[in-house]
Amino acid sequence: MKRYAQLFILFLILFSLRSVACLNYYVVDSSGHRNMHDDYPPSNIFIHPKYDIEDLKASESKILTATTSDKYKYISNYCATLIKLGRHREAIPILENLLKDKPNEYEINANLAVAYELNGQIDNALTFLKKSISISPDSHNESEWFHLRILEAAKNLNESNLNPQDISILKIQSDTSKKNGFQISYQLKERIPLTKATNNLLSKVIEESADFYSANISLEWAIELYAISIGYSSDNSIKTKLWDKMNLSRQKLIDFKNQGKEGSVSKYLYKSNWKKKINQRINEWANYKPYYYDKEIKTTF
Predict the structure, then answer these.
(1) What confidence tens digit (pLDDT) does each residue in 65-113 have?
(2) DSSP of 72-128, one letter per residue?
(3) How many domains does the chain have?
(4) I need a labelling partner for 92 at 20 to 30 A (CA). Which of 10, 69, 255, 301 fits?
(5) CATH code of the domain covering residue 235
């Protein structure tokens, strides 16, 4: 009996270790190299406003009961959730007020940068993003270079007659491809849910990210990112170009499969009706907007 108990405990330990282990995927890039990547696909984007609304209510309760010294933290959290729900205009004056007393608080500066960006105040967004990076250079898994380059591109576009297709936005260095892959995925999963379609700048950012994934990590995941890029684009010629990239990438997948180099994810891409699911993804993002976007809901804070 004692032996059975020991075996049972050992089983629980092994199960626990397995349950918290990193997930690993076999994927294939555009050169036919099979890669093992221990991250979720970058297109696996979590959007559930129900939970954000619950977080908003929880923050409201904590603000009312927090000590004077901690209240600013809950107000900043409240503003972060407002931003996620598309209520960035409400968040800006609250964060600006917090900043008067807490000028060097990373979270407040970073949240204000995002709110300004979504409100089209690119110069202000750049100022506060740079300040937040100077306060905490390693924040967001050292991925804020991604955000910074987007804002720099937005400023450049505002000051010129160029469009996003005329410039390179991310300027990704391929010599750190795996690290960049994690950082790009992290930033896309944060940025895309905040941004209402259509948005040609974000479409180009996603396209460049897809190009990176295609060359360095996964054709499968690149195709899914090209689909999101189409959803965010308002330019039919760009949509055609992106479809060409998807078709080429998909044909490479089929060729590599015939060579025994098949990826282990996104199996639908190997089927004849693959475009049905791709079109569903395109339509999902072409019509996307944060939950409360365009709704005027006044806050009491």
Answers:
(1) 999 999 999 999 999 999 999 999 999 999 999 999 999 999 999 999 9
(2) HHHHHHHHHHHHHTT-HHHHHHHHHHHHHH-TT-HHHHHHHHHHHHHTT-HHHHHHH
(3) 1
(4) 69
(5) 1.25.40.10
Q: With respect to residue 220, please indicate whether it lies within any of the assigned structural domains.
A: yes
Structure tokens at 71: 């209240």
User: How far is residue 74's CA from residue 80's CA, in Å, rounded to a whole number?
Assistant: 10
Q: Give the C-alpha separation, 296 to 21, whole Å.
A: 43
Q: Which residues pair with 28 in a beta bridge?
A: 34
Domain membership flag for residue 291: no
- Nearest CA to 85 among 290, 223, 255? 290
Q: Which of 252, 276, 247 is nearest to 262 (CA)?
A: 252
Give dist(CA 137, CA 186) in Å, integer.
Answer: 16
Kindly report, residue by residue over 152-204, the tens digit of the pLDDT: 999 999 999 899 999 999 998 766 677 889 999 999 999 999 999 999 999 99
Kindly state whether residue 297 falls inside one of the protein's structural domains.
Answer: no
Measured distance CA(46)–CA(147) in Å, rounded:
19
Secondary structure (3-state) at 285 = helix
